[in-house]
Amino acid sequence: EVIRLYGYEKVPSVLPAAPGGHGLTVAQQRRRRVAQALVGAGLVEVVSYPFLGDADLDALGLPADDACRGTVRLTNPLSDEAPALQSTLLQGLLKTAARNIGRGQTDLALFQTALVFKRRPDSRPAPMPSVEHRPSDEELQALYDALPEQPAHLGMVLTGKRVPAGWWGKGEPQTWADAVQAARTVAAAVGVEVSVRNAALAPWHPGRCAEV
Predict the structure, then answer these.
(1) pLDDT digits (tens, 9 = 90+) for 186-212
(2) pLDDT digits (tens, 9 = 90+) for 115-166
(3) What pLDDT score does 128 carry?
(4) Where are the alpha helices (DSSP H) in the chain?
(5) How far are the Cα atoms of 29, 41, 173 from residue 162, in angstroms, in the given order?
(6) Nearest Cα to Cα of residue 78 among 44, 56, 53, 55
(7) Is residue 43 within 8 Å of residue 93, measured between CB atoms?
(8) Tell me, what's the pLDDT at 22?
(9) pLDDT tens, residue by residue, 13-22
(10) pLDDT category of residue 64 using cuts at 50, 70 and 90
(11) What does the alpha-carbon distance between residue 156 and residue 110 come to, in Å, rounded to a whole number?
């Protein structure tokens, strides 16, 4: 209020000097390499809301004892339909794909990198320290112990045609081989050698599932 009465134009503007940094961290560099590799392979990065509900997990066909059902519930969720933090990226990617398909865009190759939140088996509700004084070391440790596990995940969804139809032909559809190759692309970007084998992991069809 004092500055407004005195006059904004009378207050000099000084650009602060940016502190010297050390560049990107190792984790940031790795994430950037993965994103650049997938974009170079023709995928598009998307960002989804990090919330889900029981209906999303039911739609994925996950069994009752699946680890993804161990969600972290929010005290004040933005929506009653999505009161938990995401434990998988699939529901957000599939919803994004569904919206695009509903608008006529059926040839999609999407990916997302984000944190997922998984409740610890021995987790307890976070305490509410008093605001009258600094939290004690025991209170701070209790707050840290209440935090869920937050691993970084990468999810991809491919649908439609990999090569669109045109004068050159009918085009080429996305297949399971494209999904496996996308996973190999990620592994190569971070310098990891992987092998692929048959698996039975929910929510995939037992006879059409590959484990990398």
Answers:
(1) 999 999 999 999 988 888 888 888 999
(2) 999 988 777 778 888 889 898 998 898 888 888 999 999 999 999 998 888 8
(3) 85
(4) 2-6, 26-40, 54-59, 90-102, 137-146, 176-189
(5) 28, 11, 5
(6) 53
(7) no
(8) 80
(9) 889 888 887 8
(10) confident
(11) 6
User: What are 31's two structure tokens?
Assistant: 């994430």
**Distance of alpha carbon 50 from alpha carbon 116, whole angstroms:** 8
Owner of token pair 């503007």: 13
Distance of alpha carbon 53 from alpha carbon 117, whole angstroms: 13
Q: Please identify which residue in the block is written with the tokens 């560049």.
A: 23
- The CA radius of gyration of the chain, in Å to the nearest whole number, is 23
Placement of tokens 């339909």 in the chain:
81
User: 3-class secondary structure for 166-186?
Assistant: ECCECCEECCHHHHHHHHHHH
The Cα-based distances of 44 to 41, 111, 128, 182 in angstroms read: 9, 6, 42, 12
